What we know:
Elements: H1 7-20, H2 25-29, H3 35-42, H4 50-60, H5 64-69, H6 73-91, H7 95-112, H8 115-132, H9 135-149, H10 154-170, H11 174-190, H12 196-212, H13 216-229, H14 236-252, H15 256-278, H16 280-292, H17 296-309, H18 316-332, H19 336-348, H20 356-372, H21 376-393, H22 396-412, H23 416-430
Helix pairs in contact: 6-7, 6-8, 6-14, 6-15, 7-8, 8-9, 8-10, 9-10, 10-11, 10-12, 11-12, 12-13, 12-16, 13-16, 14-15, 16-17, 16-18, 17-18, 18-19, 18-20, 19-20, 20-21, 21-22, 22-23
Amino acid sequence: MPERDDPVTIGRRVQRLRVERGLTQKQVAEPAYTPAYISTLEAGRVRPSDDALRHLCDRLGVGFEELATGRPARLVTDLRLRLTGAQRTLATGEAEAAAGQYTRLLAEAEELDLGEERAAALLGLGECAVETGELEEARQYFERAEKACGDVPLPARVPALRGRALSHYLAGELRYSVYLLESTIDELNRGGLHDPDALLLLYASVIAPYMDMGAHARAAQAAELALALAPRAGDPALVAHMHRSVARTLLAEGRVAEADASLAKAAELYRQLQIRTELANCHWMRGYVYAQNGELARAEDELRQALTMLSAKRAALYSSQVAVELADVLHRRGRSEEAAALLQDVLSDLSSERGALHSAAAHRLLGIIAEDARDTEAAEEHYVRALSLLERAGAAGDLADLCRLLGDLLRRTGRVEAALDAYRTGLGHRTAPGTTTLGPAPAQPPL
């Protein structure tokens, strides 16, 4: 919150409000203060304490912020109402429209010097940029949001921290993403800050980078913890809409404090709605486990549920990895044409700068499908493309596996020396120090 105005400005404001209401200095002063104190305050010769300002607010019928800063409380509440509107727009999949709303709201928050609202607008802009695939822009917004939060408790800073980690992950910087998420989880749990929503967001977000680094056991543990922490709200979107409608009615009636309370509930529910989308990662993880155990029908059900929660319009980068896993299950169930069509859809939304890991996974599986169809030329082309993408991202475990596939293909087509080179490259990635060693797992919350 910005600093209050200087004593002279506050004194003049108190005098103006008192005169407008037809009150004497004695009426404003009693019972806690004297008329002489009010006279001195109105002259700007004393800096009022918080207790004195609260007393004056009660006597004059205004909010603390309006008396201390001159900003009508209704103005700030109206800004918060429009922030929840932008959250709703983003939650329903209109990222570009939401970005326009957040940009206008950020300008207003900066003009009014509202730190909390400025941070919320920056966070929203970061989330919009992730949705549209502008990852560098997203990271910058998240960094600015984190700075705008100031010294607020860690749970309040978690959405910005998580956003920063997510932007690094989607750009292929796996280890740094895991470092950010794990260190935040550790700080929350070891510091006794067991905020369920914050932990849920962090555990759900760390699953994908764990998987890409080959830390499958840790990914499974994070998925189970996230599901255990999941909120039990029925439909947060409907409840949030109700709170926004109530807030608008209360604001029209001049009941600003009650409107603020409803808006706070709406904002949290929209945040939960985005967290529920993150829970798709947990269904994806379950589908992966079922697929590894050969339970392909159950794996397909879980992965399709994840894709339903992550519609391509809302989160193309998130849904693409789930789609690749689903395509693998379909291929293993003998439905290779359906799998290939799904993979081609994934590739149409991605590039080397935007979803490199997901592109590589799609090319790898398309190579396997081409090999099954005895189209070795197409298979080799897909493997080479995947290899180039993985080398850029530094996904060592996947690189080793891909080198094995490419080596086997080259050996079967009589190119033994080239096959040996591919195997040696794969062994180098498999034994590279520190590629999958993440250190101790983060502390667990008391569930």
